[in-house]
Amino acid sequence: NDGAGGRAMSNAEKVERLRAKALELHAAGRFVEAEQVYRRVLDLRRGDLQARYMIGVLQLQQGLPAQVLASLEPLLVEAPKDTDVRTQLGLAREELGQRDQAMADYDLALTLNPGNALTLLYRGNLLTATGRAAAALWDYQRLLGLAPGYDEAWFRLGSALWLLERHDEALAGYAKALQLNPGRFSAAFNA
User: What CA–CA distances, in Å, run from 1 to 16, 41, 42?
Assistant: First the structure.
């Protein structure tokens, strides 16, 4: 009898309220509590893909990449074209040192959705980390075409350009990152 007007809430309404509560806890950095609420969603709706996905995201944010794989890989059976799941799996694989598999996840995610901004960022970061800064430039430039006000992309572009010894262009990238987010210490440090 939690609904408006004294009527009982349907399962769908309960699920939506629980999701909202879990997102609120998640945003507040209360990851353990958020996961508990997502698990309550699963008690009401066993196969809820969004709750299962968000549990994997929480696990990644808590530094539990092996658990992320266990949580998210089964989702690919039900949602093989879900680029967000592929991207989160890529991040988990990176943390586990499985760079080739991470790159495969990012590549597939971008094949399915070439405009996925976060996947472009993460693949560019992995390319840079593995000594392929020239290849990373394409991802960062594509990302900036989608989100020109994204300071992280400007910073990463600057870093890739710096590694390629294109220092003037790199400094311009860092300067743009600073312009967009003046408090960004790492960009200030590198500029």
Answer: 16, 18, 21
Alpha-carbon 126 to chain mean position: 14
DSSP letter, residue 46:
T
CA atoms of 99 and 126, how far apart (whole Å): 8
- CB atoms under 10 Å from CB of 23, counted, come to 14
Q: Which positions ≥6 away from 25 have C-beta within 8 Å?
A: 31, 33, 34, 37
Q: Give the pLDDT of the chain (191 residues) as one tens digit per residue.
A: 455 556 787 888 999 999 999 999 999 999 999 999 999 999 999 888 999 999 999 999 999 999 999 999 999 999 999 999 999 999 999 999 999 999 999 999 999 999 999 999 999 999 999 999 999 999 999 999 999 999 999 999 999 999 999 999 999 999 999 889 987 655 455 54
Q: Give pairs for 77-80: CB < 8 Å, separation 24+.
A: 78/47, 78/49, 79/49
Q: Which of 126, 116, 69, 73 is nearest to 93 (CA)?
A: 69
Report how far residue 146's alpha carbon sits from residue 144's, in angstroms, rounded to the nearest whole number.
5
In whole angstroms, give the CA distance from residue 177 to residue 167: 15
